[in-house]
Amino acid sequence: MSSNLDALYRQVIMDHYKKPRNRGLLEDGSHTINMNNPTCGDRIQLTFKVEDGIVKDVRFEGEGCSISMSSASMMTQAIKGKKVEEAIKLSKIFSDMIQGKDYDEDIDLGDIEALQGVSKFPARIKCATLAWKAMEKGLTEEDQQ
Amino acid sequence: MNVHDIRRQFPILDQEVNGKPLVYLDSSATSQKPIQVIETVEKYYKEINSNVHRGVHTLGTRATDAYEGAREKVRKFINAKSTQEVIFTRGTTTALNTVAASYAAANLNAGDEIVITYMEHHSNIIPWQQVARRTGAVLKYIPLQEDGTISLDDVQATVTANTRVVSVMQVSNVLGVINPVKEIARIAHENGAIMVVDGAQSAPHMKIDVQDLDCDFLAFSGHKMCAPTGIGVLYGKKHLLEKMEPIEFGGEMIDFVHLQESTWKELPWKFEAGTPIIAGAIGLGAAIDFLNEIGLDNIAQHEHKLAAYALEKMSSVPGMAIYGPLDAAKRAGLVTFNISDVHPHDVATVLDAEGIAVRAGHHCAQPLMKWLKASATARASFYLYNTEDDIDKLVEGLVKTKEYFSDVF
Q1: Residue of B353, B362, B404 with shortest CB distance to A4
Q2: Which residues of A touch B409 (CB under 8 A)?
Q3: Is B55 a residue whose pLDDT tops 60?
Q4: Within 10 Å of residue B408's Cβ, how many Cβ atoms?
Q5: Do the interacting molecules here have an ipTM over 0.90?
């Protein structure tokens, strides 16, 4: 198999796909957001618990390919405990990274960096961004309430 | 029919994708175009491009003759009685929307029924939902058998004296099943309903005779049958089309325009407002010539053999789930599938790296996906230029996909 494929399906991505972190729903969540990708049928539901402007907890439910589900798993891991504005900022950095644009490389993205290979597969970028877009929308709406 | 000679007439097939020879298995989405069609369109633009049905000048006459000549080719292709029954549209979607917005919206009332099936494409669902919302009619679905086929008993049970419209696809873009539209038309007519056939997946692959089927309307697209994108056909029985109002208004479709009202041209032009899709129609005419030369029956037989071969070979891949009937006799040339533990998008990406193009997703048939209990599936579809070698490469790719995904865990 090509090295390009290996760059897409990194070990850490497969790990998140097979053993998703924060999967499920929060019973005491303060906010829920549903989003789908109508072109392919992927869907995601996020529940958040936000207190004092901090994402205390977040879980995801949904169905989709390895890229969309692992990205969702990594996203929940990355924003848990962060301030709402930090989480939204992270989403913007992620969006730049996945589109192959320049981004602030000083920020430690942890596992998320494994998704960088997606930028070479334009047809799959939307898979990777679904969970992040849902998070951004959910937290922005949360903020306005 | 010699597939290797045919392949040479499709320039796009002679290329590498991701360093591998292209294996194109997505003809149900859109077919590739033979050089004859490409050159006909090019020749139109180089030599006779002009607007139709208006100018007195020579090019105008040549363009009109070519455009109306294409209509006659379509008429013969589907055995319509008259070219007045052949309307050029943008594609199947526009053709079905025209029947819904013009015929159905004017003839249906609250309590009337529209009957479709669970396997329909969104373009044969949503226009009817809209009619139902506007008129108060009820949209009913014919259920499917375990293997995805339709039983005529279920058709009898669903179609009633209140049914005004029955609309069914002739070949499913997901299950590959060939529906008995002739028998369904008979049941529709016995109950006083009209019969609409979505021929998007059948017209490219099998001989259609609208008089034999006795359907009231037939819709199909050029781009799935070797013609350019943006051209399609609505066939309708003349006595129905005559009573229908156009849904688009403007140039080309009028007889007289007064200050407060206007009258329409005769059929088929009253349904072709604005400058029509001239190059597309001429390209469709060339595609029909091309297909006729090879013979629709030969094409159908070839695809049937490929489907049988694919079903057999694909079934041998571990963890393979195939949707629709496993009996090749009930099928057209496509196979929809899933491999256990690998999402269809991932399947399509790994195959793409091998130069193999397949479709992954819900195939514009969400109600059917729900019935199949699958959020998405992958599909390999075949046409006259595909070979058993293509299927061998697909199966090899599927085995590699399976191995790749078990290796990384």
Answers
A1: B353
A2: 14, 18
A3: yes
A4: 18
A5: no
